[in-house]
Write a structure and sequence with these properties.
Elements lengths: L2 E4 L2 E8 L3 E6 L10 H7 L3 E6 L18 H15 L4 E6 L1 H12 L4 E7 L8 H18 L1 H8 L6 H6 L1 H12 L3 H12 L9 H6 L4 E6 L3 H13 L3 E6 L6 H4 L1 H16 L14 H9 L3
Helix pairs in contact: 2-3, 4-5, 4-8, 5-7
Length: 296
Amino acid sequence: MPTASIGGVNIHYEVTGRGIPLVWAHEFGGDHESWDLQVRFFSRGYQVITYNARGYPPSDVPTDPEAYSQEQAVEDLHGLLNHLGIERAYIGGLSMGGTMTLSFGIAYPEMAKGLIVAGAGTGSTDPQRMAREAEQFATKIEREGMEPWGAAYAEGPTRVQFRRKDPKGWEQFKRGVMGHSAAGSALTFRGVQGRRPSIYALEPALRRLQVPTLIVIGDEDDPCVEPGIFMKRTIGRSGLVVVPQTGHTVNLEEPDLFNHVVLDFMLAVEADRWGEREPTSGVGFLANAEAQGSGR
């Protein structure tokens, strides 16, 4: 993998294919290889960029806790795009990468052709609890290492759906988590998950966001269901896909469905057919009927 130096931190990335750029940002439990099924599909017609976030070797693992935050993750992606000479791209991500994607769209809307926000919003309904758990997990990882923690993490209530559908894929995911850098994972927990704003706190910025946005959630990914619906109701140019009997790792659990809804989204954006939410869609049936009858 080639390397981009961003603020003195080396970020390893991979570019596959040619065409309109499409970037994928991984979740806490993943890395750039988490997107292999998307790379194989989209590189037929797009230039697909994947990368490892800071704290995930072979990218650097800075030891300064202040080097980790959601804002820094946004700047890392911004620096990577500048390094590659990319002025505008589709930006997509899962979980940690999904919330970063949303923040990137807010910070640099002119660089985002469209946003794909998957499995985002964990901890948003109770940020204080999220901060406590992030610290507890970081401490446990530092004391025990990644192997025991990662094994338990892969057995979580939003991961067992993946194991049920694709045991081999789930085993690969589990081994990947267990092999992550303990230092990088602990620092990421404290600096990113433990300090990032909840999705609900972004409401004013989301209401101003005009970048076409696709939101994807699994219906059994409980921490992300309500935030996903909130994003749909708040972002004017958004669409929501709910995938049945699916947990957190939606792009790996249902890769064919995921790939095709993302492709449909991008084709609609490119054809200028991705619409904006109707202003009357949030009111009651009778009000809608009256508005239609009056010709409004």
